[in-house]
Design brief:
By secondary structure, the chain is α+β, with helices and mostly antiparallel strands. It has a domain at 56-108. 44% of the residues lie in helices and 13% in strands. A two-stranded antiparallel ribbon has the order 1-2. Strands 3-4 form a two-stranded antiparallel ribbon. Helix 1 (39-74) packs parallel to helix 2 (96-106). The termini are far apart.
């Protein structure tokens, strides 16, 4: 006999839920869970997602620091900022290689 999963499935905009129909395959603290609702698996996925997000944020911060330094060396006003994931409002965007060439030409 298949054990029912202890997980709940929520649907729609209303706060209605029903029991998960997937068969339970693992026991945690006296409750049986399917692979979708297993609390340990959910926590591992959440941790991996958060670590990935933090790595991406650190990478974006490094890119922003490099861009800020290049803009400063080019003499671009501080009100103009490069935005990596968002609207490029009143900004002129050039890649790093072109910026380095321009700096060499300007002697900065």
């Amino acid at each position: 006999m298949k054990r029912p999963c202890a997980g709940r499935v929520y649907e729609g905009r209303v706060m209605s839920s029903f029991g998960c129909s997937s068969p339970a395959t693992r026991e945690r603290d006296g409750k049986w869970w399917c692979f979708h609702h297993d609390p340990i698996a959910i926590e591992k996925k959440r941790k991996a997602r958060n670590e990935k997000w933090e790595r991406e944020q650190e990478e974006n911060d490094k890119k922003q620091d490099i861009a800020d330094k290049l803009l400063k060396r080019l003499g671009v006003p501080g009100s103009i900022k490069l935005m990596w994931k968002g609207g490029y409002q009143s900004a002129i965007v050039i890649d790093f290689d072109d910026a380095e060439k321009l700096l060499k030409e300007l002697g900065r």
